[in-house]
Amino acid sequence: MSVRFAGYAAVFDAVDRGGDVVRRGAFAGARRVPLLWQHRGTPVGEIEAIGEDRRGLRVIGCVEAPELAERLRRGAVTGLSFGYRVKQASRGTPREITALDLIEVSLVASPMQPLARVHALD
Question: Which candidate, 6, 73, 101, 115, has a CA 20 to 30 Å from the CA of 56?
Answer without folding.
Answer: 73
